[in-house]
Amino acid sequence: MAGTLSADMEYMKETLSVGKNFDIVYRVIHIGGKEACFYFIDGFCKDELMEKLLQYLIELSDQEMAGTVHEMLKKHMPYVEVDVNDTWEEIIHNLMSGVLILFIDGYEKAILIDCRTYPARSVSEPEKDKVLRGSKDGFVETVVFNTALIRRRIRSTDLRMEMMNAGESSQTDIVLCYMDSRVDHAFLKKVQDGIRNIQVDALTMNQESLAECLYKRSWFNPFPKFKFTERPDTAAAHVLEGNIVILVDNSPSAMITPTTVFDVIDEADDYYFPPITGTYLRFSRFLIAFITYFLTPTFLLLMQNQEWIPEAFDFIRIQDEMNLPLLWQFLVLELAIDGLRLAAVNTPNMLSTPLSVMAALVLGEFSVNSGWFNSEVMLYMAFVAIANYTQSSYELGYALKFMRIINLIATALFGLWGYIGAILLCIISIACNRTVANTSYIYPLIPFHGKELMRRVFRLRLPGAKQ
């Protein structure tokens, strides 16, 4: 900074193109006999607060402004979140983040007044991570609101909220949430260094862009390396367990790392019900995930070897004529289910009901009557499509889907050996997967930890609960 108002205003004018950017607003005023200038982004500052600040500052006398900038702040700045800075890079970054910048002639440092406010929706329950019982608030796109939701649940001086940023153009705010006494500091440093060394122009896809920058190993293993949640209670629970929760500005979900397969399957409902009910819900998800993977490949294998079907299950045989091979029926329906899912996302709410009825009729009854699909195939794929929604993790659902498709193709080509080989491939993909911290993806199974495994499989009493 030059220390003179005219030089500072000239630099700001050239750097920010103030005349072309209508939303970059400046206001020249007199404060205690000195000329001063405010700079702020329209829409980011609280109007009522700015009016009160202006009214107070304009009434200051020459004697009250005679000292240094630090003395002025101590005695005559009626606001809490105030800082000073003389580095242009920091000043511009703060201005673009919504901070109010005040230049005063004769002061060699700019005054940064954090009176910003962001457009935000209410912290209502997220559509994806709903629970039967429990809190009904959820993360929003404003990172400060999200950190407050976690702070509300963890009132500990050990909780750390470390602010970082990434992206040369976007300068996206990233917050690392962790418990200082419980986190793995070696892994924490690895995450910090990874964020600092990100060489991207912008995190265009928010957390997915960050995840791909932090995890640069093999991409072909589909099982998720991170857990995403829109629930503050889930994020707070993982923080207390020693994990790192990463919040990215403009994203309404938290990214949890390191994550094992047991973490991905866990849900908040397991803990909002008594232990026996929570255990039942957890086993239900395990069983349904197991069935969604095995159901269609096993049915295809049995149809290829019908002599293996027990007499009691003879009814599962396909009775009608097959005009299309079973493999192609399953593959076409796998694709059709994703097509319906994408269509549902992009369908206006007013048309969702009639289009759902039309899709049910056309892809249900008419597709069977036309001879394209057999009713048994439609039944099993309908179960698979609905059962996928028992998992809150989209990434895990698609991982199982990809492994199921590989099993279908291998079974159709190589019969029993293809079926066994695909199952082994699925097991190896899970067992050989590594977390971002380079630890076992299936801990506490490998390395084995009996007590922790019992806690992961069964919903036991919460720590501290009275016996």
Secondary structure blueprint with pairings:
Layout: H1 5-16, E1 24-31, E2 34-41, H2 47-58, H3 69-76, E3 82-85, H4 88-96, E4 100-104, E5 110-113, H5 143-151, E6 159-166, E7 172-179, H6 185-196, H7 207-214, E8 227-229, H8 232-240, E9 244-248, E10 254-257, H9 261-265, H10 269-272, H11 275-304, H12 326-346, H13 349-369, H14 375-387, H15 394-431, H16 450-457
Antiparallel strand pairs: 1-2, 2-4, 3-5, 4-5, 6-7, 7-9, 8-10, 9-10
Describe the structure.
Helix 11 packs antiparallel against helix 14. The chain has helices at residues 5-16, 47-58, 69-76, 88-96, 143-151, 185-196, 207-214, 232-240, 261-265, 269-272, 275-304, 326-346, 349-369, 375-387, 394-431, 450-457; strands at 24-31, 34-41, 82-85, 100-104, 110-113, 159-166, 172-179, 227-229, 244-248, 254-257. The longest helix is centred in the last third of the chain and has 38 residues, at 394-431. The termini are far apart. 47% of the residues lie in helices and 12% in strands. The chain is built from 16 helices and ten strands. The strands form two sheets. Strands 1-2-4-5-3 form a five-stranded antiparallel sheet, with helices on both faces. Strands 6-7-9-10-8 form a five-stranded antiparallel sheet, sandwiched between helices. The protein is α+β, with helices and mostly antiparallel strands. The radius of gyration is 29 Å and the shape is elongated. A hairpin with a 5-residue loop joins strand 6 (159-166) and strand 7 (172-179).
